[in-house]
Fold Fructokinase.
Amino acid sequence: MLSVLTFAAFVALVSFFLFAAYSADRDDLEANRFGRALPFVPRRVERTAAIDSSDRLGRGVGGSVTSCEWRVEGAVVNHEILVTGETLIDFLPDGPGPLSSVEGFDRRPGGAPANVAVALARLGEPPLFWTRVGDDPFGRYLRETLEEYGVPDRFVERDPDAKTSLAFVTHDETGDREFSFYRDGTADTRLEPVRVDDAALADCEWVHAGGVTLSSGRSREATLDLLERGAAQGCTVSFDPNHRPELWPDDETYREVVGDALAHVDVLKATEDELAALGLEGESATALARAAREAGPDAVFVTRGGSGAIAVTDEGTASHPGYDPDVVDTTGAGDAFVAGTIAGLHEGREPSETLAFASAVGAAATTAAGAMAALPDREGVASIAEGEESGNVDPADRR
């Protein structure tokens, strides 16, 4: 009898300690905004954990979207990342030379934020994507394309009174690109503030925006509003300036507006030229990145083409030499790098590990023609990191 009582007491004691350990771990996880132990946490990540989850799908008024959750065939899918920006048609030339001499163009879906959204979906982190296209054949094509790649259409707006943006790309003899945009009053310039309301942002963990929508009045206001409210809600905010001088009236306006955006940004991805265009000074990529951190971001990732990439954070500077794939087309490689950066940090990777992962995503995106068509899945990224060819399959080819 005594042995039975002793055994029962032992079991009760073990159960108590196991429950206490579980409770402590659970408290630690709930205190972490991402629900996991993150080695790198931006300053604004101290998000209130006590978000009311009694109505996770929310109910909106006035057409606002009120949740980052989405029902798919009866199941609730939680999209923790929100991307916003332009979706447009890229017309790629059939050869180098000025626009006046190009005889043929290949139509491709494009827009840097759209590429980022698709890249995240390919990596298994399908985001919600707030964009606006015309209710025209090009707009319908873009909506169908995004859906094929697994990007939910809940935030993809149709504008009955505006056309879809077009961009004609040309290459000079050295391969450098030039853009001719047709986007005066187009749908992506007509984003409205507070379309994504605070209830939706409360369910999101990450907000990413590109710089093109900052170049026009209404979408500028809407984009800055989203970044400000996202930061206030505790979302990690990332930004890619994607500088297109053709879209800005002058350098001063560009610097002022992007400077306003950087005040809300945790993670910045840019090239050295883009940092210099902001008026930042430095004799190296590292010096430019450190100067950029003074404007607000906690982490600055700088892509350097064939020279690899660096990341500058409070922990110091990490660098990666890049990979050496068989390059077919570099279009969208920077956007793929952005998606890899977001996915890596969101998954809890160290900045140095994130840098290597993002570099592999970007490299894999160069192994096939086109931006979206070349974006890799996890297997494609792993094969690049292991020194193999990508071999990923474009979902559009499965039709």
